[in-house]
Design a protein that fits this description.
With 129 residues, the chain is α+β, with helices and mostly antiparallel strands. 33% of the residues lie in helices and 24% in strands. The protein folds into two domains: 2-81, P-loop containing nucleotide triphosphate hydrolases (Rossmann fold, 3-Layer(aba) Sandwich); 99-128, no CATH class. It has helices at residues 44-51, 74-81, 99-109, 114-128, and strands spanning 2-12, 17-28, 59-64, 67-68. The longest helix is centred in the C-terminal third of the chain and has 15 residues, at 114-128. The protein binds adenosine-5'-triphosphate and magnesium ion.
Length: 129
């Protein structure tokens, strides 16, 4: 279960404060599918980045299966992220790598052998055509 409780994200600008996420509360039970809709700049991407721990909330708590992800150590957060699939709004590809090498990157960081990661990456590429 995912639980957002009184989540705020405020950015300090030069002369003002921008509230990107304003007191967000919701729960997603196991197996439920949620969509977040809103106009451009409403804070959707910020909300999702907070869920993945890429941004810390200014206040509030985010629980995933009872664990407050804003309180995890960096190491635990990296482990947690392996269980969260995220497609970025911008692709964030490494230009120095080919497509298949980009797909292989997370497997490489996870210490999977060269032969095995090539095999898996080829399967993923086939899957999406
Ligand atoms: N790092 C940052 N510093 C300052 N302001 C930011 C930062 N990131 C996002 N914002 C601001 O927070 C607000 C929400 O941005 P966000 O990218 O979450 O919106 P969005 O709903 O994903 O928009 P879009 O539909 O265009 O993708 C915007 O006003 C944006 O300019
Ligand atoms: Mg966005």
């Amino acid at each position: 279960m995912i639980k957002f409780k009184n989540v705020y994200k405020k950015y300090k600008l030069d002369k003002s404060i921008l509230t990107a996420v304003n007191d967000v509360n919701f729960e997603v039970d196991d197996g439920e599918i949620y969509g977040i809709i809103g106009y451009s700049g409403a804070g959707k991407s910020t909300l999702v980045r907070i869920l993945d721990g890429l941004e810390a909330p200014t206040s509030g708590s985010i629980e995933i299966n009872g664990k407050d992800i804003s309180k995890l150590s960096n190491k635990s957060l990296r482990e947690q992220r392996k269980k969260i699939g995220m497609i970025f709004q911008h692709f964030n590809l490494l230009w120095s790598r080919t497509i298949i090498e980009n797909v292989e990157l997370p497997l490489e960081i996870s210490g999977i052998s060269k032969a095995e990661r090539r095999k898996q990456a080829e399967e993923f590429i086939k899957l999406v055509g």
